[in-house]
Amino acid sequence: MPPARLPSSQPRPPALSPIRRPSSTADEVEERLILAIALGDKQPGDRLTETEVAAAMAVSRVPVREAMQRLQLRGILVGHGLRGMQVADFSPCRIAEVYELRSAIERIFIAQVMSPDFDSAPLLAKLEALIDRMAALAGGSDPVALSVVDLEFHRTIAAHSGRMLAAQIWEGLAQHLLIVFCRDWSFEADRAGEVAMHRRLLEFLRGGDPADIDRVLAEHFTGPALRRAICT
Questions:
Q1: Rounded to an integer, what distance in angstroms lies between the CA atom of residue 158 and that of residue 164?
Q2: Over the stretch 27-55, which tens digit does the pLDDT of each residue have?
Q3: Do 1-89 and 92-228 show the same overall fold?
């Protein structure tokens, strides 16, 4: 479940603030940790311990341990000596690798949904609605909400493709992508241009030539993250 959007008129509380509900879960802790990294509250190399996170979120160490172990399995947290973990490197080289993997997987989805016998009408309707939401948010000051919609746009293509194994692999990248998207939408001045880029992808899905998939994906992924993500 994506993190709830905060009204732009209210200050954003720290991502590692107490969880305001009777019973906390590892899912909620995991979401808060991802949000903390995405918004820069926790930087690459920062150390995290179960005790610190549990105290910040006012929960027991059990769900914190589970959430941190999940994030370690996905490569978002890495081991830190004998105690605790640290936020993984999100250098330009690392981001470029994430995008390389993403491109290969999303090509599978797009080739499937553009095949002649695929009923794309339900998918296109959902993508249109998501772009409308993205456009409505683009003038605001909430990069988290924009990032969630951006991620949902691509997740929707994955889900409708019917390529379940590829979709499961894509989900393994989703949290990495949310972190990258959050940074992109935070620093991108031309948000309208980013929305237009998604609309061009939608129009390609609606009536483009499948032979152009690689070119279109290369254009779509040459956004602010990939422009900065150059291994040197």
A1: 8
A2: 889 888 988 888 888 988 999 999 999 99
A3: no
Spatial separation of the C-alpha atoms in residues 53 and 68, rounded to whole Å? 10
Q: What are the structural domain ranges in the chain?
A: 1-89, 92-228
CATH 1.20.120.530 fits 92-228, yes or no: yes
Q: What is the pLDDT of residue 224?
A: 53
Architecture of the domain whose range is 1-89: Orthogonal Bundle (1.10)
C-alpha span between 99 and 97 (Å, rounded): 5
Q: Measured between alpha carbons, how far is 42 from 143 in angstroms, rounded to an integer?
A: 16
**pLDDT tens, residue by residue, 147-187:** 889 999 999 999 999 999 999 999 989 988 988 888 788 77
Q: What integer pLDDT is reported at residue 82 of this predicted model?
A: 66
Cβ atoms 3, 41 nearer than 8 A? no
Q: What is the mean pLDDT of residues 191-198?
A: 89
Other beta carbons within 10 Å of 189: 8
CA distances from 179 to 44, 48, 119 (A): 12, 17, 32
Mean pLDDT of 88-116: 92
Estimate to the nearest angstrom the gap between the alpha carbon of 203 and the chain centroid.
22
